[in-house]
Specification:
- The protein is α/β, with parallel strands linked by helices and about 190 residues long.
- The protein has eight helices and four strands, in the order H-E-H-H-E-H-H-E-H-H-E-H.
- A four-stranded parallel β-sheet has the order 1-2-3-4.
- The radius of gyration is 17 Å and the shape is globular.
- It starts with 16 loop residues before the first helix and ends in a 28-residue tail after the last helix.
Length: about 190
C-alpha cells in the first residue's frame, strides 16, 4: 500500500497505531499476514525452489526491488508487535517465516502478545523435523500455536502423518508434484 505521497507504507508505520491500539482495547486478536515465503522475494529463475509455483502464479513474486526486502518487512513487523503489548497478534503461516523457526521462536519469547498459526506451512515444518519438534512444544504458553488449514482439508492426512508417526520423506499434499515446491517432508513432530 502506498500513502498520499506515493511512498510504500511500512508494516510498523505509526499512522497504523490507532488500529492496533483499538484492537487491544477491544480485546480483539489480530490475525495478520505480512509476508509470503522467502522464495517469493528471491530472484525468479531456475535456482528458486518455488520456481514452478511462481511460474504458475507470477503475481506472487515480490522480488526486491521494487518491493521491500523480506527482512525489512519482518523487522518492521517485530517492532510493531513489540510496540503494542496490549494487542494479541497471530502471525499467519508460522509468523510468515516458517523457513526460520529460530527467528519466530525468538519473537515469541520477546513478545508474550504474539502467537502463530501453522496453516499452509506443513511443507516447511516437515522440512526441518528436528527443529520443529523442539519449536512446537517450547512455544506452548499455553496456546501460542493455532492450527488451521489455509490450503484446505486436503492437507489433513499430511498433518496427521507429520505429528503422529515416524514417516519419512513423504509428499505433503495430494498433488504428484508438491504444490509449494519440489521437496518432501518427514514426520514425528509432537502432537498436542
Amino acid at each position: 500500500m502506498r500513502d498520499e505521497t506515493g511512498a510504500l507504507v511500512n508494516v510498523d508505520d505509526q499512522r497504523l497505531d490507532p488500529v492496533w491500539q483499538s484492537a487491544g482495547e477491544l480485546g480483539l486478536p489480530v490475525l495478520i499476514h505480512i509476508a509470503d515465503p522467502v522464495a517469493f522475494f528471491d530472484p525468479i529463475d531456475e535456482t528458486n525452489e518455488r520456481w514452478e509455483e511462481i511460474g504458475s502464479h507470477p503475481d506472487w513474486a515480490f522480488t526486491s526491488p521494487p518491493y521491500p526486502a523480506f527482512m525489512h518487512i519482518l523487522d518492521g513487523f517485530s517492532r510493531m508487535v513489540a510496540r503494542h503489548p496490549q494487542t494479541t497478534f497471530i502471525g499467519a503461516h508460522v509468523g510468515c517465516y516458517a523457513e526460520n523457526l529460530g527467528w519466530v521462536g525468538a519473537m515469541l519469547e520477546r513478545c508474550p502478545n504474539y502467537n502463530v498459526d501453522i496453516s499452509a506451512r506443513i511443507g516447511e515444518l516437515g522440512r526441518q523435523p528436528y527443529t520443529a519438534r523442539r519449536f512446537l512444544p517450547a512455544i506452548c504458553r499455553p496456546d501460542p500455536v493455532w492450527a488451521g488449514f489455509g490450503s484446505g482439508r486436503r492437507q489433513l492426512p499430511a498433518l496427521l502423518s507429520l505429528s503422529r508417526n515416524d514417516d519419512e520423506y513423504f509428499n505433503y499434499n495430494t498433488d504428484e508434484v508438491p504444490q509449494q515446491g519440489r521437496w518432501f517432508i518427514n514426520g514425528n513432530l509432537p502432537a498436542r
